[in-house]
Specification:
With 271 residues, this protein is α/β, with parallel strands linked by helices. It has nine helices and eight strands. It has an eight-stranded parallel β-barrel, surrounded by seven helices. The two termini are 19 Å apart. About 2% of the residues have low confidence.
């Protein structure tokens, strides 16, 4: 089945609206790949923007339910207004997670820059304390991540391990990989279900070679199409992150910087 896309450089990474995201998700579901929908809107600078982002995320939850999609919702705390009022952003996440749980849909809280880590971890824990299951991304490039991982596992929050698109503490790619493997190995040894978000060929090969039944392999739309389909065909659990909406500038810039950084090192993501 052909996977719907749109033309243009930016649309490698994002889709224009929720309808396009639903079409993409339906096609990927048919290939055995679930989706993670994100109504783009990070760094909201006004209460109005935060309210609109909340409404767009709630609309995505309703669409997942209405169309019977195998999908969850991703949200960033700054999209909900964490730069304006962290407490209000937390309350918005609680409301959104409650609506999603009522429809049987998961919520995944994405991680942002160093100054937002504690706010984001605390918001996820607040959800867990109210019986609202969420997944939380943690960046293995940060020194604090092992402690944060233990905190969220104690609260039955599902981790999603990523290397980190923001500034970190680790000195170089090999150190970040070492930390990633150490954290993933600990979760595997304890039988804790988790997901990973990486396009690193070495890390993916390392995970596939282990008994990885409790691991979901997450990829971005716009990358790794061959690998997504191959892993799904092999019976592994695969998800694709599908961002949509007009507020894509910051997100697209991170994706382009990622590819430029790999090219500078003579490396490439998995195909």
């Amino acid at each position: 089945m052909e996977v719907p896309t749109t033309s243009g450089r930016a649309h490698r990474w994002t889709l224009p609206d929720l309808d396009a995201a639903v079409r993409r998700c339906r096609a990927q579901n048919a290939r055995g790949i679930r989706c993670i929908l994100d109504a783009l809107g990070e760094y909201a600078r006004s209460e109005r923007q935060a309210r609109e982002n909340l409404e767009r995320s709630a609309a995505a939850v309703a669409a997942i339910d209405e169309h019977g999609l195998d999908a969850s919702l991703s949200v960033k705390m700054t999209a909900l207004g964490a730069l304006i009022d962290p407490d209000a952003a937390r309350d918005s996440l609680l409301r959104l997670s409650g609506e999603a749980r009522a429809r049987g849909i998961g919520v995944e809280v994405d991680m942002e820059g160093r100054g937002l880590v504690e706010t984001t971890v605390e918001a996820a824990i607040a959800c867990a304390r109210q019986g609202l299951p969420v997944t939380l991304a943690l960046q293995t490039s940060l020194d604090r991540t092992p402690g944060d991982l233990e905190r969220i596992v104690r609260h039955s929050i599902r981790p999603r391990l990523v290397k980190g698109a923001y500034g970190g503490d680790a000195a170089g790619l090999e150190e970040i990989r070492r930390r990633f493997r150490a954290l993933a190995a600990g979760l595997l040894d304890r039988g804790v279900p988790f997901s990973v978000g990486t396009h690193d060929p070495d890390l993916i090969a390392w995970l596939v070679a282990r008994p990885a039944g409790a691991v979901e392999f997450g990829f971005l739309m716009g990358l790794a199409d061959e690998t997504k389909l191959r892993l799904a065909t092999e019976g592994l659990t695969v998800a694709e992150y599908v961002p949509f909406g007009e507020r894509a500038t910051a997100y697209v810039a991170r994706r382009e910087a990622y590819l430029a950084g790999l090219a500078a090192e003579g490396r490439a993501p998995v195909p």
